[in-house]
Amino acid sequence: MAGRIDDEYQRLKAHTHKRVVDKLDEDGVEVGGANRQRVEDAITRAVHQYIAEQRIPISNQDLNQLARDMIDEVMGFGPLEPLLRDARINDILVNGPQSVFIEIAGVLQKAAIRFIDNDHIVRVVRRILAPLGRRLDEASPMVDARLPDGSRVNAIIPPLALDGPSVSIRKFNRHHLSAEDLIQSGSMTEECLQVLVAAVQGRRNILVSGGTGTGKTTMLNLISQYIPKNERILTIEDSAELVLSHPHVVRLETRPANTEGRGRITARELVINALRMRPDRIIVGEVRSGEIIELLQAMNTGHEGSMSTIHANGTREALVRIETLLAVSGYDASEKAIARLIGSALDMIIQLVRLPDGRRMISEVVALDPREDDPYHMEYVYRGHYDR
């Protein structure tokens, strides 16, 4: 029965869960405050007792699996628990009760688990959110939160999600790939590494560009390791994913609005505040909105060596994306002035790609060398070799 996702097993889980909860309540077992082993033993006994009372034919192996599932259901996050424990899994995507996908090594695949129904998904998500003081209901049908371990969870339920609750979990990984790991896997060459190290230590302003899941944060983590130890770094992120092994780092994180729609702190506000905190370098996890204005101006006015990432599928597309962000954020200037601002602020763009087999690679590294007639003039300092 391990890994079974059929309807019969889901019904058995639902009935068993109700019985286990009732039994724990009858016996006065406090799930949150008691010794974990004592609670697990109580759950296991309740499962065995229920199966015996109902005379349900089940093998010992299947009975043990059912008990394990009930422990996850009562004490953890239900069907998500084994996925959260699996260090190989980077992302968990729930698209309704019977459609759960995971990403391992850059490849999406369907997971051999399912939920009982929509209510089951919502119940598990609420359990995840409870310690965070966040809510998910008809009045607040969308939530984005960071778990205590740094993982990020986003959930959206009907009526906004038409086909049932949708949950996305980006697991936080404290073990980031080293330069040697990326060279060994063919993601970049030793020659490329030397180019990046020289750029960081030479205080070049760097933008890491790539599509979804190309490893932008991993690359930002990697190159940040080469910042001299005597410099003060301020990081600004929507969700804290950067892990810098540096002695002088101040980490700032945006804050969403509360249930009354107040208290939101944006990345743009944090960048403005960071400039008053005497940073040597500013690292913005990803530019998505108005923070691009202050970041570019900071890069142009004494904060050389700053870095960020952007969602774009090519180096030229990254520059166009910045232009678009400036325009929608109300930056009032001519096209020529905008191009000059961008061209003079950025020194280097690292472009990442993800291949169909899940491998992530540096496709090219370009240095911006603005000319009077071409503010985006590029010199290619590295080009990766791979089969498209």
Mean pLDDT: 88
- Count of DSSP-assigned helices: 12
Q: Please write the string of helix (H) and strand (E) elements.
A: HHHHEEEHEEEHHEHEEHEHEHHEEE
What count of structural domains? 3
State the helical fraction: 25-40%
Radius of gyration: 25 Å
Look at the structure and name the CATH superfamily of the largest domain: P-loop containing nucleotide triphosphate hydrolases
* DSSP strand count: 14
Give the CATH topology of the largest domain.
Rossmann fold
Termini separation: 41 Å
Counting copies of identical and different chains, the oligomeric state is single chain
Largest sheet: 8 strands, mixed
| CATH level-two architecture of the largest domain | 3-Layer(aba) Sandwich
Tell me the structural class.
alpha/beta
Give an account of the 3D structure.
The radius of gyration is 25 Å and the shape is elongated. By secondary structure, it is of the alpha/beta class. It has 12 helices and 14 strands. It has an 8-stranded mixed beta sheet with strand order 9-8-10-11-7-12-13-14, with helices on both faces. It has a 6-stranded antiparallel beta sheet with strand order 3-2-1-6-5-4, with helices on one face. Helix 10 (291-300) links the parallel strand 10 and strand 11. The mean pLDDT is 88. Helix 9 (267-274) packs parallel to helix 10 and helix 10 crosses helix 12 (335-345). The protein has 3 domains: 1-75, no CATH class; 76-172, Beta-Lactamase, CATH 3.30.450; 179-383, P-loop containing nucleotide triphosphate hydrolases (Rossmann fold), CATH 3.40.50.300. It is 37% helix and 20% strand. The protein has helices at 7-26, 36-54, 60-75, 81-85, 118-129, 179-184, 190-201, 216-224, 267-274, 291-300, 315-328, 335-345, and strands spanning 89-94, 100-104, 107-110, 142-146, 152-156, 166-170, 206-210, 233-237, 249-253, 281-284, 307-311, 348-354, 360-368, 378-383. InterPro entries: P-loop_NTPase, T2SS/T4SS_dom, T4SS_GSP_E_ATPase. This is Type II secretion system protein. Residues 76-354 form the Bacterial type II secretion system protein E domain.
